[in-house]
Structure formats: structure tokens, C-alpha cells
């Protein structure tokens, strides 16, 4: 992070941890699983997700509702506080493993080393406290400074995220901001302690299209300036296309395709990804063609379909021989350098279907 | 697992509460406070219980609501008449004594009972010398005259009390009262020839004058201290106690009056040092305090609540502390002679036989509540004559005889009528329901209509127009006399002159010349024995008329805690304890 | 802000006038519908079997023979400038505010009201403190430990507390512990508290149960809100999340409810006062109603209405202070 801002005294409750320089994995998730023990059964919201993220990079996690994207990010932040949550796997943040670290340690890192912004800034900000007060609170949790200094810092952040007249707006309440300004304020609050990891959970879903672009630009700028790693969660491929370096597609709690954004967009290797791309509205598409939605609805996470979780909705479920899509779960297999896909069809079969059937329609 | 723990917790809680209530209820059994525990039940009816001559102690009286007023000139309640004798001496009063002696009138402020002229229209009393108010001034006849003037003739300020003086004193209807008529002479028919003589000039012969003189209205009030309705806050005592504290809703405290001279007062011993009167105490608490010997008496004098009675009657040691006196009251049913078919005496007689009085008593709580009645005058009122014109085995009624009379009056199959009762008196409703059943057995269908007590006489049963219009041939009624003689009991309920367009108490609308004449003649008879005999005659005539159906001679169940001393029942004040005698060992 | 307060005060006065007029109307007109005449009404204030002169005198002296609007006008005039009346040899001045005099005992109403307010106030304030503290504490703990034995037990007890009528619990408490009389605070603060402990607990039991349930529900709802998640995401300690972010929001609806409950209680905790034989406004109201004593009833009604108006105003102000979204422009 920028040395210029290092004039803050170090937070009392953090143990100085080694900073990773560019090139090293800042965030490493290994086989993360989050299960919920409910009265109806064990809900496997996330069932074995792995990925890496370097500082300065952006990872986009996409999928439908219920695919497990938000649960994954909450898992990284340690925000699953219910007694019914069962978390497994490993999360390495800057060389430190979080799942075994204990809640108090993770709490110390939250808001300081890793921060999160949420979908609806109106409900995500406390209605009774001013924006300024909430930002100051976020700052003083991790930094032993007096109120005046914290206030200065908060105003600084408001300015940085592009809110006009930050001195005046410091005292305003969340309901007095417009949607876009509110989201900026939340970003300011998340970044007030210079976190090295920023997780953005559907940050633009609740905003107008025009404002969406502004927010995404802001995030990109801040990332460039501070060199932080960003996880962008969304169901909207259009959003992700703008800023993600890498993409992770989730379905039924698992990763079904992973790779660089370019590869996944232009050489997708999974029928579900094809479906996502087909259902994405694009300006350059001919108006006469209808969107091709993915047929069916998301599967139950208690009784996940046998074999390949996508098989009930996959038009190509019968292509692989021996009914294997219904009996055996496909593991992630490397397609090319850094590009993985979990599908029983062979590379050739997928390439052919993509080139002949899918791509022309997009 | 959760259920077991919860159940255990509940069990413990229940055990603790049961234990606690047992502990709180059982303490009164000990004899540690010396002496009261040996008397038997009803001992106070005929003797003074727990006698003592020791000066000292504090008597604590409690009441579940309050008096109409503690001002002796502004009250109608019997208990206030009884209680006010502690701070207000009337001309004469009832003897604080046990048994039948308690009905005897004896001189108090006066030196002797009234001296009557032969025509019983002029009555003279002589006031004792040397009796002082609490401020040291001597009491004169003028103070007694003033007391009568303010209590009877100033309804704009004092409207609660009886107005017999107004009715019987000559010129009473013209005198405007001492607040409006500021003339020096006041009411001319009360003469005060000197400071110790007072003469009442009546407008008709009235041989019961001593009983009127026993009213608290004759207790002297100094004119200069009288502020009308607010006098009650700063009353000037003429008795052995004076007020040290007074609050209209909380109560009062009485302490010794140093100006009271026992030599001038042959009837009061004034043993307690202090008397506390507590008002507006939750009725359950009133009973609890008695049972736990925290208070001395329930000053209202109507006895334990219905729900407390069984608790006390089942335990021998508790029952021994109860007294079950006659309350000087009669519960009866009035048959209105102007509502068909009760205009026919035979129909009325049929009802007299149809009524099952024993079952009625059982339904309202048993013999504790009273005895079956066969006369108008109850046993503890002077002039009571025992007879039964419509007898039946065990007072259960005689259906055969009833039907016989029904046929005689031309209604062999029975008829329909309305029976009124007071909705806020549970006993009365129960009794009415029971009667309804008795009447059904001979074919009379009585529809019960309920009304609140405070409007019963002013708006319904006491309004002849309403009664006739609504076919209210039968009306539940209860009556206690304003003074314990036959006249005091009968005049307001059987005299034709007591019929009023509204608020009347002669619900039968009985207007029998013979009865009316007997009453007038009787009240003019100076000789007591002859007079009392007259009342018995009236009673009999009324019963022959059969329009009044006596049901129950009411009784109260009183309770005397261990610390109560010199306890006896006074029949003069509706069968409550005598508060002049009462003292406490605490 | 000042304009707002003035407007509210004006509305309050208007409201009190309406309340008094309605009470007047109910008192006089409803019995007429049931067939009561002026005479039978006057007869309520005298002894039994009165003679007509007495009734006439009472009618005149209490002003019952005047037209209704005249009586009402005199009443309002009395409150503002005072009145003069006579129940004895000399006239007496009743200084403003004059709430008239009891129909039954001819004593001034206002001093009696003033006398009783401290009793009811003591009862209400003490009980309020107990029930708010205990109710909220139990509610919060139950919400945080949702589903635990503590939660089930406390909510079960709360259900019982809410369901049991006051006169039942009051009588049980009386039977178990007996009770002493009210001792004014000025006389002896310790005895004052001692005499009030039982009524406080009895009254508080009912409300505490209610507030525990309300707090629990409010907390559960609040703790599921997004901003709680944000607070945790900032790294706040859980205790701070619960109290500063959760409780603060959960308590807001309780403010309104408390304002109403407390205001109603100030008008007289009727059942409690009756059970424990306390001479507060509630007991006064009962006496007034059972003896058909209009001035007593009016006095208590107006005092109660006054408290409700004040408490409503306070609640609105407090609410605006707590929740910026509600603030007056």
C-alpha cells in the first residue's frame, strides 16, 4: 500500500504480518466448504472451492443466486456467525491461515487487512448514525487515534471517492445520499484502513446503469492506486467483463470453470458458462435474436443432483457416454494454462459445440 | 429433558407458595397475646368477650370503602352513628351492654331520657353541667339546637343524613336552615330557655322521640366552628377522643380529648389511647388483617366477605372467634297491590305459601346468612312478636295450600309477572332465582329483571308509574330500620304515606287505613309496653294483607381477632360490635 | 423547533377541551338515554329515602338544574379563573385551577388530585424502571441466545406474565407477603421504597414480560439486518455490534410503546392501586365512578389526558432525536 498514508500509527490489535509483494499469492483459498446444519438437512452452500488471487489483481466470481458466491466471500471474511455453519478447507491471507486462526484474530483483520462492500448501501449502512461517524468508527476500531484525526481521515476518504463537499456531507445520514453517492461512501468506509483485500459483493446491482459505470471506474482507480487485490462478486457478466483479470464461475456451490477473463469469455469450456454468455444482453447483438436463458432453475443445495450438478439443465448431458454425467461428478481439469473446467465432455466435443452452435448465436 | 427441569421448577414454586400461605394464615392460633382465645362462637351475642379494664392500646378499624361522612350531622350509616359516639355525645344513646340490654336507650349528654308532654308532642331534655368541647368551652343547649338545625335543614351543604327532625318538628317545612336564615332565633320549634334545657315542639304525637334523640344529629356543634360541608375536616369533639388526623379517603386518627371529664360520662370507659380508622382498604385485605390479628375490627359491621366465611367456619379454632348476630334487617319480597293479579289477596296468599324459604337460605350460603322469616319486624327490634300466618313444614313452603289459594283468586293455572332485583347484590339475585323456581312449581312464571342499587328506588321499583307500566308485581327488597323500634322499622315500608312518585320504599303500595291508623295511634302512645304491642298488631295486619312476603331475618358473620377486647354485639346498631366498648390489647 | 412546540401545545389544549366535553356529555347524557331524570340524578348524592326539599337543594347547589352547556362553561371558567361556591355559612373561594368540588363530599377536587399524583407517580416511575431494565435485559439475552434453555424459559415465563391478569398476580402477592401502607417519600424515603416494592414488582411483572418479548422480537429482527453484517465486517467487537448497532435500532419502537404505557399508568394504575389499597389517581377514579361523582371523574380524566398528551409529545421528540429519518424539517 502507499507509503504516504503510513503516518497512521499501527493498529493496536493487529500483529504485524509479512506483506506480500507483487507476484506472490496474496489470497489462497483451498477447498473451502461452508455447510449449514438446518432442520431440513445439511445445506451445502459451498462445497469445495479453490482459487488464488495476487495483489493488484481482480477476480470476478459469477453465478446464479444460490450458487454460493456470497457465502464464499462471507466465509473468507469470517462472517458466518451462526452456530449451524460448518466451515472446512483453508484460507490463506498473506501467509496466514484464517479458518484455524480463531474468531478473535479474524476480527482483528476484518476491516483492516480485508474489507467488504455490500449490495444495497441503504440497508447496509446504519440509518441512525451519520456517514462520517460510521467511517470514523471503522477507522478507530483498528487505529488508536483521537476523534479529530479520525474525522480528518474520514473526510479525506469521502473526498477520495469523489463525494463533493465532504466537510458538509460528513454529517449527513445515509438516507440523505443518492444511491450512487451512498455506495461511494460505503467504499470510502471499506478502504479507510487501506485493506489489501477488497471484496465487493454485487456492488452495483442496486444502482442505475449510468452510476454502475462510475462505481466500477472508482473501484478500478482505487485498486490501481493502492495495489489491493479485489474480489468482485456478481451475477452480471457485463460488470465483470469491465474489470476482472480472472473469472471463477460457480454452480451449486462448486467451481465449474476458472481462468483468465479473456479465456473464459472467448473460449468458454462449460455448457453453463455458454448459458451465462447467451443470457447476457449485448448491444452489438441483433435485435431479432432472443436471449437464450439457461433452462430450468437452480438446484437444491440439500439434495444436490447426482453426478454433474448441472446435468438436469444441460442440453448436452447425454453427450458423454455411459450416462456418466448422471453418476460421476466431474472434477476441474486443466484445459490450457490457468484455464480449468469441470465437464465430462472432451475438449474436442466442447470446442466443436462452441464454434458451431453457440458462438454464432451470440 | 427441558420438560423435566421445567416441571421441577414449577413444583418447587408451588410448594414454596403453599408453604408461605400456610405460614401466614396460621399464626392467629397462638395465645401469646394473653386471653382472647377461650371464648366460644356467638359469645358476643349475649356477653362481653375478653373483658378488661386496662387503659391503653390502639384500636385499628378498617373499611373497604368509606363513610358518607364522619360528620355526625351528615351521615346515614349505622356504623358511623355507632363510631361517632367516640367524639360526639348525643342527648341519649343506646346502652353499651351485652345482649338485649343493648337495645336500651340511656341518657348521654342529657341527664335523663326525654320528658314528654301527655300528648307526646313536646319533649324536654336537660343537659349535664360541666361537659366541655375539646377547646374547653362548655356545651350548652344552643349547641345541640344548632346541630339539629344544620343536619336537617341545610341540604345545600349537608344532604346525607335522615330528615326525621325536619318531618316532625313544627314549622320544619318552612325553616330555611342556619346558613340561609341568619336570624338569632333559628328554628322556633326548638326552644332553649336556658343553657341546659332544650325543648322540642313536634307537629304530631311521636312517642319514639328518645330514639330520634339518640341520632348522632343531636351531638352538639359549636356554631362559630361550623363551616358547613368542610366542618368534617376540623370537627370539635364532645367525646373522650378528638381528631389528630383526618383524610377523606385515607381515614382518621383519634387521640384522647383532655377536656373530656369521665365524671360527666357514666357510659364510656374510654380505655384505648388511640383509635385508627383506615378507609379504602381492599376488602380481601380487610378480612386478612382480621384473621391475622393485624386490625381490631371491620368497622362497616357487615361481617366477613362471602368468600372468607367458609375458610373460617371449617376450622374450629377460627369459628370460635365468630359471632353470627341478627343484622336487624329483613329480606323480603314486595307484592304490589296495584299490579294484577296481586290486587287479589288470595293470589298474594298463594305466594306466601309457595315460597320455600329454607332452600332460599341454603342457596345464599346457609344459616350463617339468616333464619327463615315469618313476620315483618325482625327479632332484635323492639316490638317483635313471634307468629306465622302461613306456616309450612321446615319453612319449605306448602305447594298444596298455595294452589288452593291460587284457585280461589281465579288463577288456577298460574300467571305471568315480573320480579325485580338489584344486579349488584349477588345474594339478592340468587334469592330471586330460587324464588323463581318455587313459583314455577305452582304455575307462576316470574321473569327476573335486574337493576343497579343506586337507581333501584329512584328509577324503577320505587317509582309506581314504572312499576305499573312494566307489570312488576314482585320486587325484591331488604330493609333495616333507622332506629330499632317497630315504628322505625315499619313506617317507611307499610305506611300509605310512604308511597312516593319516586324514591319511595313502600314497594307494595300498601295503603290500608287500618294499618295507617294503627301506626299513627301507636306512635302517639307514650307508654312503652303498649306502644310495642301496637307494633306487633301492625305486623299482624300487614301479614294478613299478605302483600309483604318475609323471607330471611338477615344475619352477619362477624369476626373478633385475639387482640380485640370488650367485644359485644349491639342490636341497636344493626348487629355490629359496640365501638364505645371496644378496645385492644395491642 | 419553537413553532413546532407551540403548535403541539395548542393542539394539546384543544384535545383536553374535547376530552372534558366528551366526559361531560357521557356523564350527563348517557344516563338520560337510560331513562334517568334530573331528580333521580340528584338523588344519587343524598342519603337514602330523601325528601323532595333535599333533592331540590342538591340539584340547585350542584348546578344540575342548569343547562348542560352552562355547567360546562362554568367548569371551564373555574379551571381558568377559579370559582366561588357555598356549602355552609360562608362562601368559599376556589382558586384557579378550580376543578370544582366533589358532588358527594363538597371538598375541592384539585388539592385531592395534587395529593394523589405523587402516589401514582411513585408507583409508575418505580415500576417503569424495573420493567424496562429487566424486560430489555431479558429480551436481549434471549435474542442472543435464541433457542437456548434460557430463551425458552424466559419466554415461557413472559407468556405467563403477559397472560396473568393483574388482579390475580396482585392478590397472590398479597396473600404471600401481605402489604404495608404507602409512605410518602418526604416522610421517610426508605419506608417509601419498602411500601412500594410489592406493587412495583407486581406491576412490573406484567410489563416486563411484554417488554422482554418485544425486545427479543426487535433484537432478532434487527440482528438480521444488513447493517449488522456491515458492522461486523468492519471488525467491531461483537458486544459493540449488539449494543451500539443492534440494540439501538431494536429499542426505537419500544420508545413509542413505553411512552403510551407509562402515560396510561400515570392516569392511574387502577387495579394495582385497588389491590394494594393505595390512594392514587386510579383509586380516585374508581371512587368517582362508583359514587357517580362527576368532578372526581372529570379531574382524573383530565389529568390522565394531560399526561398522555405530554408523554406523546416527549415520545415524538425522543423518537426524532433517535431516528434521523424522522426528523422534523
UniProtKB/TrEMBL annotation, chain A:
Belongs to the ABC transporter superfamily. This is ABC transporter ATP-binding protein. NCBIfam families: oligo_HPY (TIGR01727). One of its GO terms (molecular function) is ATP binding. It comes from Streptomyces atroolivaceus. It is a peripheral membrane protein. CDD domains: ABC_NikE_OppD_transporters. Residues 1-10 have a biased composition (Basic and acidic residues). Its main location: membrane.
From TrEMBL, chain B:
Coiled coil: none annotated. Residues 104-497 form the Solute-binding protein family domain. InterPro entries: Peptide/Ni-bd (IPR030678), SBP_5 (IPR039424), SBP_5_dom (IPR000914). Keywords: Signal. CDD domains: PBP2_clavulanate_OppA2 (cd08506). The keyword Signal applies. Residues 1-22 form the signal peptide. It comes from the Bacteria. This is ABC transporter substrate-binding protein.
TrEMBL record, chain C:
It is a multi-pass membrane protein. The keyword Transport applies. Pfam families: BPD_transp_1, BPD_transp_1_N. Residues 117-319 form the ABC transmembrane type-1 domain. Keywords: Cell membrane, Membrane, Transmembrane, Transmembrane helix, Transport. It comes from the Bacteria. This is ABC transporter permease. It comes from Streptomyces atroolivaceus.
Amino acid at each position: 500500500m502507499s507509503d504516504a498514508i503510513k503516518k497512521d500509527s499501527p493498529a493496536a490489535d493487529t500483529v504485524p504480518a509479512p506483506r506480500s509483494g507483487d507476484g506472490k499469492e496474496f489470497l489462497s483459498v483451498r477447498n473451502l466448504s461452508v455447510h449449514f446444519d438446518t432442520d431440513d438437512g445439511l445445506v451445502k452452500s459451498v462445497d469445495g472451492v479453490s482459487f488464488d488471487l495476487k495483489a493488484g489483481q481482480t477476480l470476478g466470481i459469477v453465478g446464479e443466486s444460490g450458487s454460493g458466491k456470497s457465502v464464499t466471500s462471507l466465509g473468507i471474511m469470517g462472517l458466518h456467525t451462526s452456530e449451524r455453519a460448518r466451515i472446512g478447507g483453508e484460507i490463506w491471507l498473506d501467509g496466514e491461515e484464517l479458518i484455524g486462526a480463531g474468531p478473535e484474530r479474524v476480527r482483528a483483520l476484518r476491516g483492516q487487512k480485508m474489507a467488504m462492500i455490500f449490495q444495497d448501501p441503504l440497508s447496509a449502512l446504519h440509518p441512525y448514525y451519520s456517514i462520517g461517524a460510521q467511517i470514523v468508527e471503522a477507522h478507530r476500531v483498528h487505529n488508536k487515534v483521537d476523534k479529530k484525526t479520525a474525522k480528518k481521515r474520514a473526510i479525506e476518504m469521502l473526498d477520495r471517492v469523489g463525494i463533493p463537499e465532504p466537510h458538509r456531507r460528513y454529517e449527513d445520514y445515509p438516507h440523505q445520499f443518492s444511491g450512487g453517492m451512498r455506495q461511494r461512501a460505503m467504499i470510502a468506509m471499506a478502504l479507510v484502513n487501506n485493506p489489501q483485500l477488497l471484496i465487493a459483493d454485487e456492488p452495483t446491482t442496486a444502482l442505475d446503469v449510468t452510476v454502475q459505470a462510475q462505481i466500477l471506474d472508482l473501484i478500478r482507480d482505487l485498486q490501481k492506486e493502492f495495489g489491493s487485490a479485489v474480489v468482485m462478486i456478481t451475477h452480471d457478466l457485463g460488470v465483470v467483463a469491465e474489470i476482472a483479470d480472472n473469472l471463477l464461475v460457480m454452480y451449486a456451490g462448486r467451481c465449474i470453470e476458472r481462468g483468465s477473463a479473456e479465456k473464459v469469455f472467448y473460449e468458454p469450456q462449460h455448457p453453463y458458462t455458454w448459458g451465462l454468455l447467451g443470457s447476457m444482453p449485448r448491444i452489438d447483438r441483433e435485435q431479432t435474436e432472443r436471449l437464450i436463458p439457461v433452462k430450468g432453475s437452480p438446484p437444491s443445495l440439500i439434495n444436490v443432483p447426482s453426478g454433474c450438478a448441472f446435468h438436469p439443465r444441460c442440453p448436452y448431458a447425454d453427450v458423454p457416454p455411459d450416462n456418466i454425467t448422471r453418476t460421476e461428478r466431474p472434477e476441474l481439469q486443466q484445459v490450457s494454462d490457468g484455464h480449468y473446467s469441470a465437464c465430462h465432455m472432451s475438449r474436442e466435443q466442447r470446442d466443436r459445440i462452441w464454434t458451431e452452435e453457440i458462438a454464432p448465436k451470440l | 429433558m427441558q420438560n423435566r427441569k421445567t416441571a421441577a421448577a414449577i413444583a418447587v414454586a408451588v410448594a414454596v407458595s403453599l408453604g408461605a400461605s400456610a405460614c401466614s394464615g396460621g399464626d392467629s392460633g397462638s395465645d401469646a397475646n394473653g386471653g382472647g382465645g377461650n371464648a366460644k362462637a356467638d359469645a358476643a351475642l349475649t356477653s362481653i368477650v375478653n373483658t378488661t379494664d386496662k387503659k391503653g392500646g390502639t384500636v385499628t378499624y378498617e373499611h373497604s370503602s368509606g363513610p358518607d361522612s364522619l360528620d355526625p350531622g351528615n351521615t346515614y350509616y349505622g356504623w358511623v352513628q355507632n363510631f361517632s359516639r367516640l367524639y360526639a355525645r348525643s342527648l341519649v344513646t343506646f346502652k353499651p351492654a351485652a345482649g338485649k340490654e343493648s337495645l336500651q336507650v340511656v341518657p348521654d349528654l342529657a341527664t335523663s331520657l326525654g320528658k314528654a308532654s301527655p300528648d307526646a308532642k313536646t319533649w324536654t331534655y336537660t343537659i349535664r353541667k360541666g361537659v366541655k368541647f375539646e377547646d374547653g368551652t362548655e356545651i350548652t343547649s344552643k349547641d345541640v339546637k344548632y346541630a339539629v338545625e344544620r343536619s336537617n335543614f341545610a341540604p345545600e351543604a349537608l344532604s346525607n343524613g335522615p330528615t326525621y327532625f325536619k318531618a316532625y318538628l313544627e314549622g320544619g317545612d318552612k325553616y330555611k336552615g342556619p346558613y340561609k336564615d341568619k336570624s338569632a332565633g333559628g328554628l322556633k320549634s326548638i326552644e332553649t330557655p336556658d343553657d341546659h334545657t332544650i325543648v322540642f315542639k313536634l307537629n304530631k304525637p311521636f312517642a319514639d322521640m328518645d330514639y330520634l334523640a339518640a341520632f348522632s344529629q343531636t351531638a352538639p356543634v359549636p356554631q362559630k366552628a361550623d363551616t358547613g360541608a368542610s366542618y368534617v375536616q376540623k370537627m370539635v369533639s364532645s367525646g373522650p377522643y378528638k381528631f389528630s388526623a383526618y383524610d377523606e379517603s385515607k381515614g382518621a386518627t383519634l387521640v384522647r380529648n383532655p377536656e373530656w371529664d369521665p365524671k360527666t360520662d357514666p357510659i364510656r370507659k374510654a380505655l384505648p389511647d388511640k383509635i385508627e380508622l383506615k378507609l379504602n382498604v381492599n376488602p380481601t385485605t380487610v378480612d386478612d388483617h382480621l384473621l391475622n390479628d393485624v386490625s381490631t375490627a371491620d368497622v362497616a359491621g357487615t361481617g366477613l366477605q362471602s368468600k372468607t366465611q367458609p375458610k373460617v367456619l371449617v376450622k374450629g379454632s377460627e369459628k370460635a372467634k365468630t359471632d353470627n348476630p341478627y343484622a336487624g334487617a329483613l329480606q323480603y319480597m314486595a307484592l304490589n297491590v296495584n299490579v294484577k293479579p296481586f290486587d287479589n289477596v288470595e293470589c298474594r296468599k298463594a305466594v306466601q305459601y309457595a315460597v320455600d324459604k329454607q332452600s332460599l337460605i341454603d342457596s345464599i350460603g346457609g344459616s350463617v346468612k339468616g333464619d327463615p322469616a315469618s313476620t315483618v319486624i325482625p327479632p332484635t327490634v323492639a316490638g317483635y312478636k313471634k307468629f306465622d300466618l302461613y306456616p309450612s313444614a321446615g319453612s319449605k313452603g306448602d305447594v298444596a295450600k298455595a294452589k288452593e289459594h291460587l284457585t280461589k283468586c281465579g288463577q288456577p293455572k298460574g300467571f305471568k309477572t315480573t320480579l325485580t332485583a338489584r344486579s349488584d347484590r349477588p345474594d339478592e339475585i340468587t334469592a330471586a332465582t330460587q324464588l323463581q323456581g318455587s313459583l314455577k312449581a305452582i304455575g307462576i312464571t316470574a321473569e327476573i329483571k335486574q337493576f343497579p342499587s343506586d337507581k333501584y328506588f329512584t328509577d324503577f321499583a320505587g317509582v309506581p308509574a314504572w312499576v305499573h307500566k312494566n307489570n312488576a308485581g314482585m320486587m325484591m327488597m331488604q330493609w333495616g330500620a333507622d332506629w330499632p323500634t317497630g315504628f322505625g322499622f315499619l313506617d317507611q315500608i307499610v305506611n300509605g304515606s310512604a308511597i312516593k312518585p319516586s324514591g319511595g320504599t313502600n314497594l307494595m303500595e300498601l295503603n290500608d287505613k287500618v294499618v295507617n291508623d294503627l301506626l299513627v295511634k301507636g306512635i302517639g302512645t307514650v307508654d312503652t309496653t303498649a306502644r310495642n304491642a301496637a307494633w306487633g298488631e301492625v305486623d299482624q295486619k300487614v301479614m294478613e294483607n299478605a302483600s309483604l312476603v318475609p323471607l330471611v331475618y338477615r344475619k352477619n358473620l362477624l369476626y373478633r381477632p385475639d387482640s380485640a377486647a370488650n367485644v359485644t354485639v349491639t342490636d341497636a346498631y344493626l348487629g355490629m360490635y359496640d365501638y364505645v366498648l371496644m378496645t385492644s390489647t395491642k | 423547533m419553537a413553532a413546532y412546540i407551540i403548535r403541539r401545545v395548542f393542539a394539546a389544549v384543544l384535545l383536553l377541551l374535547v376530552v372534558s366535553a366528551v366526559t361531560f356529555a357521557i356523564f350527563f347524557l348517557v344516563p338520560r338515554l337510560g331513562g334517568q331524570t334530573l331528580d333521580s340524578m340528584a338523588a344519587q348524592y343524598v342519603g337514602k329515602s330523601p325528601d323532595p326539599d333535599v333533592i331540590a337543594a342538591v340539584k340547585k347547589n350542584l348546578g344540575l338544574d342548569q343547562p348542560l352547556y352552562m355547567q360546562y362553561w362554568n367548569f371551564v371558567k373555574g379551571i381558568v379563573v377559579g370559582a366561588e361556591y357555598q356549602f355552609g355559612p360562608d362562601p368559599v373561594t376556589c382558586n384557579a385551577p378550580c376543578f370544582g368540588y366533589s358532588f358527594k363530599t363538597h371538598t375541592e377536587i384539585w388539592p385531592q388530585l395534587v395529593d394523589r399524583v405523587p402516589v401514582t407517580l411513585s408507583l409508575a416511575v418505580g415500576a417503569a424502571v424495573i420493567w424496562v431494565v429487566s424486560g430489555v435485559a431479558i429480551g436481549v439475552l434471549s435474542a442472543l441466545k435464541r433457542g437456548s434453555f434460557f430463551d425458552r424459559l424466559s419466554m415461557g415465563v413472559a407468556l405467563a406474565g403477559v397472560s396473568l391478569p393483574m388482579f390475580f398476580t396482585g392478590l397472590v402477592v398479597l396473600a404471600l407477603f401481605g402489604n404495608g401502607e404507602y409512605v410518602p417519600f418526604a416522610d421517610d424515603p426508605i419506608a417509601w421504597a419498602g411500601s412500594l416494592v410489592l406493587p412495583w414488582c407486581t406491576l412490573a411483572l406484567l410489563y416486563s414480560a411484554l417488554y422482554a418479548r418485544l425486545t427479543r422480537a426487535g433484537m432478532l429482527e434487527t440482528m438480521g439486518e444488513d447493517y449488522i453484517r456491515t458492522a461486523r465486517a468492519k471488525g467491531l467487537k461483537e458486544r459493540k455490534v449488539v449494543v451500539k448497532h443492534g440494540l439501538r435500532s431494536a429499542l426505537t419502537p419500544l420508545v413509542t410503546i413505553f411512552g403510551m404505557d407509562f402515560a396510561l399508568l400515570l392516569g392511574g394504575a387502577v387495579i394495582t392501586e385497588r389491590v394494594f389499597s393505595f390512594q392514587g389517581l386510579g383509586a380516585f377514579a374508581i371512587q368517582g365512578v362508583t359514587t357517580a361523582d362527576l368532578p372526581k371523574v372529570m379531574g382524573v380524566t383530565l389529568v390522565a389526558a394531560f399526561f398522555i398528551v405530554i408523554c406523546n409529545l416527549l415520545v415524538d421528540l425522543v423518537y426524532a432525536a433517535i431516528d434521523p429519518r424522522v426528523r422534523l424539517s
